Amino acid sequence: MKYAWDWKEKYGGIILEQLKKLGASCDWARTKFTMDPDYYDAVIHVFIDLYKKGFIYRGLRMVNWDPLGKTALSDDEVIHREVNSKLYYINYTIEGTTNFVTIATTRPETILADAAVCVHPADERYFRLKGKRV
Questions:
Q1: DSSP secondary-structure letter at 13?
Q2: Which of 35, 47, 62, 90 is the most exposed place for a label (fewest CB within 10 A)?
Q3: What span, in angstroms and rounded, lies between the C-alpha atoms of 5 and 90?
């Protein structure tokens, strides 16, 4: 919790300033943080409700990771730019078999840090991988 509050104090104002520059017209004097004591219980209640309804889940997710800030970023905070690069294909062997799943990446330098392969659970192409290790 201390880290979350430290992060908010350091970076929270930057996000608000970005919103102001975008022209957001808000009552800035009433700005709240989701971890403020008077909001915390309501936030937890809503997250639990959304979780029980299946709209969100708790677990490892693919995110935009900022290695310098050591935090996950939303798409709104990422500056996207198109660059020409190579697409590398890597075959990950499915544990206990001779089968494999092919992963494509433009960032082969991250392969050594790979901890998981994420697939959409409803995608029939990868249903055979559910619960498997590679």
A1: H
A2: 62
A3: 40
> How many Cα atoms within 13 Å fall on the side-chain side of residue 53?
7
How far is it, in rounded angstroms, from Cα 112 to Cα 118?
Answer: 16
pLDDT tens digits, one per residue of 64-81: 677 777 777 766 666 777
Collapsed DSSP state (helix, strand, coil) of residue 64: strand
pTM for the structure as a whole? 0.41
pLDDT tens for residues 1-25? 788 888 888 888 888 888 899 999 8
What's the start-to-end Cα distance of the chain, in Å? 34
* Residues whose CB is less than 8 angstroms from the CB of residue 79 and which lie 6 or more positions away in sequence, other chains included: none
